[in-house]
Structures are given as C-alpha cells and as structure tokens.
C-alpha cells in the first residue's frame, strides 16, 4: 500500500503542470488592442489556450517572416527591443509575428520559468504552424533575454522550420541549447548588459564552437538597448542580409 501511494504521488508530480498567469496575459492583450498602432492582433492556440500575437506585414511583397519572442513577464509589443524590431523589420523585407509567451506572477524569478518551457515550445510551434497555413515562411526566430532561452530550448528540442536565429541579450542558460544548434546564430549583446549575459560570453561562444555560422557581436548598449533602437535594428538587419 505504501509503495502504491508513493507511485501515485510520483505520477502526480510528473504530470503536474505549472500554468502561466493567464489573467495577466489577458490584461496585456486588452492594453495592446486598445493602443496598437502597427500590425493586427492574431489569436493563436497552444495547450488548449488561446494567446495573442501581432502580425505586421512587410512593406514589400514577401513570404519571409520573423517570429519575435519577448523576455521575462512582458508582452509582444513591449516598447524596449520587441516593438522596435517587429516594426522596423517590415521595412527590410520581412513580415513579423510577435507572440505572447507564457508569463508568471510578478514575483517569479527567471528560474521559475523553466517549468513553462514546454508550453513556450508549443507557442513557438503554433506561430510557425500559423505561418505555414497562410503560405508564409518562418524564416528567422528573434528573441530577447529570457525569451532567447525559451527559443534556443525550442530549437534544440524540436523539428522546426527556422533558418536563422537572433538572440539579443542571451544569458548563460542558453549555452546548454546553443551547443545543439546548427542553423546560423547571431548572439548580440551590449557592453553594459546585465551580469548573466556578460559573465557568460565565453561560455556561450564555447558552447557554439562547432557551429561555423555562429556570430557573437558586442555593441554599445545596455540589456534593453535604451536610446539605441537604431543600433539594434541596424545590427540585426545587417546580419540578416
């Protein structure tokens, strides 16, 4: 009997699922829909949950699309890094699809998000599937901060359509996944970035040593590229070309 109880408890723990803060996601969505200036809201579904994304078409006729992944606890139109990139790339020959990633409560630290990585995988895949269903090409995955860890986790553990990956302000947790990537990677960070990014520069480079198409670039910026939007956009656009 004791063994049976232990097995049942173990099964419960294995199957337990940390749920994102869906109420917070809903609040973000309401704020974005009320003030969205560029692009259109598109609702996608993953893990039986509907989540928001923003599709912004290119100024030129193209199938190439960049899927954009935000960082810790924010949303797909975040004014730092995410919004500048998702809009600017539409002038550079890309459609963009910026997606809402799982968020936890405000007190949750970055490590707590590991529990929702499987759900993050499903959301990125849902974005790729949406593009395929609409005759668009999931050409590049672009992610910032914690979103870059979610993205490299997805790329390392799933069959995917992406040809390139741009990680902006990637912390050290990326190393374990970068070692498994073979597609071209841009590891972009600032000289005034956060500690977890600056302290792992060599670790990330070492992890990607077998990827001949891995590029690490430091620019004059902080983690959020404050007052450096043009530099951010130029750096990403130059590498993509």
Summary, kept brief:
The protein has 241 residues and is an alpha/beta fold.
Description:
With 241 residues, the chain is of the alpha/beta class. It has one domain (17-240): Alpha/Beta hydrolase fold, catalytic domain (Rossmann fold, 3-Layer(aba) Sandwich), CATH 3.40.50. It contains nine helices and eight strands.
CATH superfamily: Alpha/Beta hydrolase fold, catalytic domain
Helix content: 25-40%
| Helix-strand makeup class | alpha/beta
Number of helices: 9
What is the residue-mean pLDDT, rounded to a whole number? 92
User: Which term fits the overall shape?
Assistant: globular
The main sheet comes to: 8 strands, mixed
Fraction in beta strands: 15-25%
Unreliable spans: 1-16
Topology, element by element:
Blueprint: H1 2-15, H2 22-35, E1 40-46, E2 49-56, E3 64-69, H3 82-88, E4 95-99, H4 117-133, E5 137-144, H5 146-157, E6 164-168, H6 175-178, E7 185-192, H7 195-198, H8 201-207, E8 214-222, H9 229-240
Parallel strand pairs: 3-4, 3-5, 5-6, 6-7, 7-8
Antiparallel strand pairs: 1-2, 2-4
Helix pairs in contact: 4-5
């Amino acid at each position: 009997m004791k063994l049976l109880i232990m097995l049942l408890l173990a099964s419960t723990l294995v199957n337990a699922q940390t749920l994102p803060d869906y109420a917070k996601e809903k609040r973000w969505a309401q704020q974005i829909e009320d003030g969205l200036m560029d692009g259109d809201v598109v609702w996608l579904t993953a893990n039986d949950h509907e989540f928001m994304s923003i599709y912004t078409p290119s100024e030129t006729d193209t199938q190439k699309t960049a899927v954009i992944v935000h960082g810790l606890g924010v949303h797909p139109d975040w004014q730092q890094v995410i919004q500048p990139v998702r809009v600017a790339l539409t002038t550079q020959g890309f459609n963009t699809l910026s997606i809402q990633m799982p968020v936890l409560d405000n007190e949750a630290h970055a490590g707590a998000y590991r529990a929702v990585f499987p759900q993050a995988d499903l959301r990125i895949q849902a974005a790729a599937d949406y593009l395929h269903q609409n005759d668009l090409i999931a050409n590049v995955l672009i992610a910032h901060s914690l979103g870059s860890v979610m993205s490299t986790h997805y790329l390392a553990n799933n069959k995917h359509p992406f040809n390139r990956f741009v990680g902006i302000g990637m912390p050290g947790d990326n190393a374990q996944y970068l070692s498994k990537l073979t597609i071209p990677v841009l590891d972009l960070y600032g000289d005034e970035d956060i500690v977890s990014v600056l302290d792992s520069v060599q670790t990330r480079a070492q992890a990607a040593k077998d990827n001949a198409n891995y590029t690490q670039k430091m620019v004059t910026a902080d983690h959020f590229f404050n007052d450096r939007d043009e530099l951010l956009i130029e750096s990403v656009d130059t590498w993509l070309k």
